[in-house]
């Protein structure tokens, strides 16, 4: 089943074509990696999908619904979770409060002014923490977590709306090599168990080749290759871009 | 036609004077990110030093130029001392703490200037060459007024050369655009910042000294100059020199023609222009969208009160409730004011702390509340109960309308727009004489018969104000408070989990305004009268001081800060004629030693 | 620990409160000082209020050296309101509640005066306003407990109109600070002049914000109207700028200028050698007023403070004289008795004798009306008042029927 369909996406800044006609599809439960050298347009492409940027042309369809140019929070409501390149959590809260906030938002109970939020969605938040392996850390301040833990908390935040699609911009950037594999294994397990589709960008090729079902390669705003690990590895255009081979 | 030309020239002339002061302010902000409240004080010092120096020099043009430059250099040196002694220590602190420190400098310099030069206005006799004029048609325009028209662009040009053609200038620009880059270039940041502050101070001093032939050195210069310079800098785009120049010209010329066409609304005109410009271009004429301007602030963990704090709070509340049985009527009135201050401070904290929306004009809501009560009485003969209900409604309504227009702005721009609103409300209160009674205010705002006894009124104020402050606190721990804080901590992340930051902030500003309005309404009945001074800049600064004194990043902060500040201010006012000096020094100590506020400090000790 | 300290604090507060209550009757019996509470804008308006403080200090010393009043010395407990009416109200409460003063006095800003007056009414305590000029203080907002010393805006306008109506000028422009004092001064001047001279028209007005005059543009705008005469209400730093810009632009050449308060040394002296000549002003010709009352005052003041007195000094001095005279006439410091006793109480001032009118509690203290001139002195040329005469306040107030209409509050 096609969950995400991207058709002819374009975006330029001051005449520079950052994304110049990108189209691809993503199936439910599939892990798709988007790779490319620096400046290839990966982040722009991501921001067009998550609503932070509005495309000049093209369409984004989520399960048949056109979500092109919608606000990030509307896209979230349609079941898209997201993690940031630089991990981003709420520093003035504890780990579990971070998740409670996301769950409150998900339940549409933001504009409640009486009962302390502490009592909202405790069990659900605890379950999410267990899922990402942070059950013991619920009471810690989110602002002082180790970076690996921040990444895991972010993943838990992104999962709070039980998303159909996870958009992860460099999910392992800044993490110790040992932690990277573990995090991506976790993501992979979640994708399998819940049928969640995952689109991620990544610099670490080992991570890409070991965790992605399929790989998209971008260069100068265009897709230049698409396929599984072996075919991408063998693609001469990819080799040219990455290794400078003629 | 001649008249239009003459008015244009005088407008350009005052624009140039404005630019001298504003250019210093904008350079300082651009590089150090410090909003220098003491900038007007430096201008005032320039005038006083200029007076002292020029009296001793020959009264010919060369003596004058030499004296003015000397005054500018001396002011620069004072600026340098202020930077090294005080500001250097707080560059990494939140910007409002820096603002507080520069406000302390303003207070200190007010008293020091009066001690050194006395209270009377000081004038310099003008030699003939300073009285010369040129004829344009029927009109005579002072030749001295024409010099600034040349001096303004000249200073702009020199600054431009300095910024574009020297290594110093390159570093300044680099620092303005990207703080980290300077450190990466291996430049001694400290020396750069000191040099920039001294340059800015010298420009302010130059402006002050050059104003002497047209007027006098007097103790009102500081406040009147700093507010106008702020407007120029914000309209021009903070940190932008060409922006400051263009804004000076815009405001100077507009004022020159404004007083001809609409002589009665000069007070409102400037702030209306500022509001208009910011509504269309929130970053100011030449400002950049503040992507790099907001350094990632580190927010500390907020926890619900521990059992010990709760018991302490309860005990304090009981003590407060029974206090009237043990103290005289004056102390009951002091306690009443403290209770009102608690709500006023808590309402600002609500928007500024968890809401992340700093305000330089919080007195607007307080004043609207007070005037709602006063006007309700004056026009509709509303009883006290209705007046006190009307106060938060009116303030909340205006706050909601205001928020709808400005809530997308961030940081310092939002703060400046609230200042503009407060000034417009203030001007309205003092100029719509038929409605508001003007400066003479509304008298006879008496409590209802059952609350006439000061003790009873105190209990009423305590119940309403501390009650409302506790409700605000409760809201911050409710889902709304979490969401609001999330949107402040990480706006993009908040959006990505479905939070509507704009709506959250709009509601927060409305609640904050309504709460401040209630405190203003209670204040009106406590004092028995309502005056435009309730909306003056000083009242907004009071609120800021209370919140910062207590600590922005704590929940108990505004309560502790309000009580501490009320007590401190009252005690100083009674204790010494030099209360401004004492208060200024005290703020300096607090900022440097207890930067996280009293409650933050107590929290750390626990 | 905290609890016990609180108890101690509360206990001492009770003790204090009780001792206060216990002392009051004793005070009334013996020769303990009569306590006068005084509030003024010492830090906000120092140029006026510091000479004013010297004035009342001198008077207090003289009164006490002469044996005080009712056999008791007087004592002034002074407070700084920081220019804010809300602070003034709190301090009034402190003076009454903690300092147990017998009456309140002071005020410079009109809104501070009105705030204290309203508070005095609510508390039913006597307030003698020294300086606030607003007419509301004794008329529209007048109350039983408030008396006012200085000639009001109305009275000063009336004094100036008496001279202005003699001028041939037919077209007038006005310039006044855009707040209550400026607005009501212009209003009264227009009203009173038009009553005397229906042929006069006002063809332009300027309202610079207080302390922020844009002098060049204001002067050009006034000159553009080509009026025969100008009414100026600006003062202080604004006045200095206005005069300098006006001199350069020739605004005052060949035009009559009528100017309120400009003859007061506070405002005249900073004008220095730029003092325009021939302006019709109200003020205080300190150095040429050779009455015994004034020369005695000036001599004593110079001896005490090594400085020349200002208008504010006269006001501070006269305020104490007026209060002492009122208390002496009453024979008591009971508030209700004082309120009745102060009516028609006569007192001496450096300007001459005056009394508090029973009808509206306004004193008849007047001021001097004259013209500005310049005099060459050892430190160069400076301004002074010439051709002056004393305008007794009693002669510049509306008739009783009008006053009763203007003062709706009975008594």
Q: Please give the alpha-carbon distance between the first and last residues of chain C.
A: 55 Å
Strand ordering within the main sheet of chain A: 6-7-8-3-9-10
Please give the CATH class of the largest domain in chain A. Answer: Alpha Beta
Mean pLDDT of chain A: 88
Whole-number total of structural domains of chain C: 2
What is the CATH homology-level superfamily of the largest domain in chain C? Answer: Response regulator
Number of DSSP helical runs of chain C: 13
Anisotropy-based shape of chain C:
globular
| Structure summary, number of beta strands of chain A | 10
Order of helices and strands of chain A: EEEHEEHEHHHEHEHEEHH
**Quaternary form:** heterotrimer
Please identify the structural class of chain A as seen in this structure: alpha/beta
Named CATH architecture of the largest domain in chain A? 3-Layer(aba) Sandwich
Beta fraction of chain C: 15-25%
The figure for the number of domains of chain A is: 2
Q: What does this molecule look like?
A:
- The complex is a heterotrimer of chains A (246), B (606) and C (411).
- By secondary structure, chain A is an alpha/beta fold.
- Chain A has nine helices and ten strands.
- Chain A has helices at 42-49, 72-77, 95-106, 122-131, 147-158, 177-194, 205-211, 229-234, 236-243; strands at residues 2-13, 16-27, 31-35, 57-62, 65-66, 80-83, 165-169, 197-201, 214-219, 222-227.
- In chain A, the strands form two sheets. Chain A has a six-stranded mixed beta sheet, sandwiched between helices.
- The longest helix of chain A has 18 residues, at 177-194.
- Chain B has 606 residues and is mainly α.
- Chain B has two domains: 2-280, ABC transporter involved in vitamin B12 uptake, BtuC (Orthogonal Bundle), CATH 1.10.3470; 328-537, no CATH class.
- In chain B, 74% of the residues lie in helices and 2% in strands.
- Chain B contains 26 helices and four strands.
- Chain B has helices at 2-32, 39-56, 61-85, 95-117, 128-131, 143-165, 167-177, 179-184, 189-210, 221-236, 241-261, 266-280, 307-322, 329-352, 363-380, 384-406, 411-431, 433-436, 454-477, 479-489, 491-496, 501-527, 537-550, 557-575, 579-593, 597-605, and strands at 133-136, 139-142, 442-443, 529-530.
- In chain B, the strands form two sheets. In chain B, strands 1-2 form a two-stranded antiparallel ribbon. Chain B has a two-stranded antiparallel sheet with strand order 3-4.
- Chain C is of the alpha/beta class and 411 residues long.
- Chain C has helices at residues 2-29, 46-65, 85-97, 110-123, 153-164, 180-196, 215-224, 236-249, 265-268, 292-305, 311-330, 335-342, 400-406; strands spanning 34-40, 74-80, 103-106, 127-129, 146-148, 171-175, 201-206, 229-232, 256-263, 280-283, 346-349, 352-355, 367-377, 380-391.
- In chain C, helix 2 (46-65) crosses helix 11 (311-330), helix 3 packs parallel to helix 4 (110-123) and helix 11 crosses helix 12.
- The longest helix of chain C is centred in the N-terminal third of the chain and has 28 residues, at 2-29.
- Chain C is globular.
- At the B-C interface, helix 1, helix 4, strand 2, helix 11 and helix 14 of B face helix 1, helix 2, helix 3, helix 4 and helix 6 of C.
């Amino acid at each position: 089943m096609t969950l995400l369909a991207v058709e002819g996406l374009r975006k330029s800044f001051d005449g520079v074509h950052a994304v110049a006609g990108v189209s691809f599809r993503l199936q439910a439960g599939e892990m798709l990696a988007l790779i490319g050298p620096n400046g290839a347009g990966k982040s722009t492409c991501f921001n067009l999908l998550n609503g932070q940027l509005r495309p000049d042309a093209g369409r984004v369809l989520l399960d048949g619904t056109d979500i092109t140019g919608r606000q990030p929070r509307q896209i979230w409501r349609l079941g898209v979770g997201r993690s940031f390149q630089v991990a981003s959590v709420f520093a003035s809260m504890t780990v579990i409060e971070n998740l409670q906030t996301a769950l409150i938002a998900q339940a549409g109970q933001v504009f409640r002014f009486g009962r302390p939020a502490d009592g909202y969605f405790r069990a659900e938040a605890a379950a999410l923490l267990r899922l990402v392996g942070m059950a013991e850390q619920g009471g810690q301040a989110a602002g002082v977590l180790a970076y690996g833990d921040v990444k895991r908390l972010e993943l838990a935040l992104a999962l709070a709306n039980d998303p159909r699609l996870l958009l992860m911009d460099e999910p392992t950037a800044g993490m110790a090599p040992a932690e990277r594999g573990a995090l991506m294994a976790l993501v992979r397990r979640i994708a399998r168990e819940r049928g969640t589709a995952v689109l991620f960008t990544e610099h670490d090729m080992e991570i890409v080749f070991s965790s992605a079902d399929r790989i998209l390669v971008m260069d100068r705003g265009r897709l230049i290759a698409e396929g599984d690990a072996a075919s991408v590895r063998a693609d001469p255009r990819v080799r040219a871009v990455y290794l400078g081979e003629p | 036609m001649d008249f239009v030309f003459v008015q244009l020239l005088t407008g350009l002339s005052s624009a140039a004077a404005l630019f001298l002061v504003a250019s210093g302010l904008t350079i300082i902000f651009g590089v150090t990110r410090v909003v220098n409240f003491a900038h007007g004080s430096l201008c005032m010092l320039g005038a006083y030093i200029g007076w002292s120096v020029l009296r001793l020099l020959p009264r010919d043009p060369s003596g004058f130029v030499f004296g003015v430059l000397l005054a500018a250099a001396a002011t620069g040196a004072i600026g340098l001392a202020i930077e090294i002694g005080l500001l250097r220590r707080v560059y990494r602190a939140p910007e409002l703490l820096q603002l507080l420190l520069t406000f302390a400098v303003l207070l200190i310099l007010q008293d020091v200037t009066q001690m050194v030069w006395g209270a009377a206005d000081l004038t310099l006799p003008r030699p003939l060459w300073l009285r010369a004029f040129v004829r344009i048609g029927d009109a005579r325009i002072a030749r001295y007024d024409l010099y600034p028209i040349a001096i303004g662009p000249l200073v702009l040009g020199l600054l431009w050369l300095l910024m574009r053609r020297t290594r110093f200038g390159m570093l300044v620009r680099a620092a303005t655009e990207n703080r980290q880059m300077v450190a990466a270039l291996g430049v001694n940041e400290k020396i750069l910042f000191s040099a920039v502050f001294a340059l800015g101070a010298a420009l302010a001093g130059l402006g002050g000294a050059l104003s002497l032939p047209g007027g006098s050195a007097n103790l009102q210069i500081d406040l009147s100059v700093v507010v106008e310079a702020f407007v120029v800098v914000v309209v021009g785009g903070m940190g932008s020199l060409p922006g400051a120049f263009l804004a000076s010209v815009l405001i100077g010329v507009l004022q020159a023609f404004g007083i001809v066409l609409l002589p009665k609304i000069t007070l409102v005109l400037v702030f209306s222009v500022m509001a208009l410009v910011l509504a269309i271009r929130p970053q100011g004429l030449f400002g950049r969208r503040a992507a790099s301007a907001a350094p990632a602030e580190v927010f500390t963990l907020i926890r619900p009160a521990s059992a010990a704090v709760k018991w302490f709070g309860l005990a304090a509340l009981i003590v407060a409730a029974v206090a009237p049985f043990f103290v005289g009527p004056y102390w009951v009135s002091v306690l009443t004011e403290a209770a009102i201050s608690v709500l006023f401070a808590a309402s600002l904290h609500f928007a500024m702390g968890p809401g992340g929306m700093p305000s330089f004009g919080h007195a607007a809501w307080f004043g609207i509340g007070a005037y709602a009560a006063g006007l309700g009485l004056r026009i509709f003969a509303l009883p006290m109960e209705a007046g006190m209900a009307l106060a938060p409604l009116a303030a909340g309504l205006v706050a909601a309308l205001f928020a709808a227009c400005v809530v997308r702005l961030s940081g310092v721009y939002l703060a400046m727009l609230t200042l503009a609103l407060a000034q417009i409300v203030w001007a309205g209160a003092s100029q719509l004489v038929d409605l508001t009674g003007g400066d003479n205010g509304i008298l006879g705002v008496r409590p209802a018969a059952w609350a006439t006894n000061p003790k009873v009124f105190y209990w009423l104020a305590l119940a309403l104000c501390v009650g409302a402050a506790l409700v605000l606190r409760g809201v911050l721990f409710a889902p709304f408070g979490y969401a609001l804080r999330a949107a402040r901590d990480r706006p993009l992340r908040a959006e990505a989990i479905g939070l509507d930051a704009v709506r959250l902030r709009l509601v927060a500003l409305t609640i904050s305004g309504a709460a401040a309005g209630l405190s203003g309404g209670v204040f009106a009945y406590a004092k028995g009268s309502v005056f435009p001074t309730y909306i003056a800049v000083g009242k907004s600064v009071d609120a800021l001081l209370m919140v910062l004194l207590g600590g922005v990043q704590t929940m108990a902060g505004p309560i502790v800060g309000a009580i501490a500040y009320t007590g401190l201010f009252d005690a100083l006012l009674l204790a010494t004629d030099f209360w401004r000096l004492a208060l200024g020094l005290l703020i300096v100590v607090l900022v440097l030693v207890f930067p996280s506020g009293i409650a933050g400090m107590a929290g750390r000790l626990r | 620990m905290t609890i016990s300290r609180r108890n101690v604090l509360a206990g001492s507060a009770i003790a204090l409160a009780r001792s206060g209550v216990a002392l009051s009757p004793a005070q009334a019996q013996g020769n303990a000082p009569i306590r006068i509470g005084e509030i003024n804008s010492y830090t906000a308006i120092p140029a006026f209020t510091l000479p004013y403080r010297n004035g009342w200090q001198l008077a207090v010393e003289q009164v006490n050296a002469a044996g005080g009043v009712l056999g008791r010395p007087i004592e002034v407990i002074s407070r700084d309101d920081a220019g804010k009416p809300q602070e003034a109200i709190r301090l009034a409460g402190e003076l009454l509640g903690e300092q147990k003063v017998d009456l309140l006095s002071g005020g410079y800003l009109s809104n501070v005066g009105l705030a204290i007056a309203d508070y005095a009414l609510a508390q039913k305590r006597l307030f003698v306003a020294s300086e606030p000029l607003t007419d509301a203080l004794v008329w529209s907002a007048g109350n039983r407990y408030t008396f006012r010393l200085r000639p009001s805006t109305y009275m000063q306008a009336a004094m100036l109109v008496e001279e202005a109506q003699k001028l041939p000028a037919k077209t007038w422009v006005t310039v006044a600070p855009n707040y209550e004092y400026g607005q009501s001064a212009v209003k009264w001047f227009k009203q009173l002049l038009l009553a005397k001279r229906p042929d006069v028209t006002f063809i332009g007005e300027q309202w610079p914000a207080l302390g922020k005059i844009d002098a060049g543009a204001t002067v050009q705008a006034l000159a553009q109207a080509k009026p025969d005469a100008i009414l100026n209400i600006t003062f202080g730093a604004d006045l200095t700028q206005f005069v300098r810009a006006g001199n350069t632009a020739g605004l005052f050449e060949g035009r009559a200028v009528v100017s309120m308060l400009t003859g007061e040394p506070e405002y005249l002296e900073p004008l220095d050698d730029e003092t325009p000549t021939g302006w019709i002003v109200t003020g205080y010709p300190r150095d040429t007023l050779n009455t015994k009352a004034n020369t005695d005052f000036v001599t004593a003041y110079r001896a005490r403070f090594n400085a020349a007195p200002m208008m504010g000094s006269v006001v501070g001095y006269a305020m104490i004289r007026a209060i002492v005279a009122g208390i002496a006439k009453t024979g008591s410091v009971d508030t209700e008795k004082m309120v009745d006793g102060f009516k028609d109480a006569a007192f001496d001032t450096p300007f001459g004798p005056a009394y508090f009118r029973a009808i509206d509690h306004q004193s008849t203290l007047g001021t001097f009306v004259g013209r500005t001139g310049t005099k060459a002195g050892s430190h160069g040329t400076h301004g002074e008042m010439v051709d002056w005469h004393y305008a007794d306040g009693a002669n510049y107030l509306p008739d009783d029927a009008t006053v009763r209409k203007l003062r709706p509050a009975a008594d």
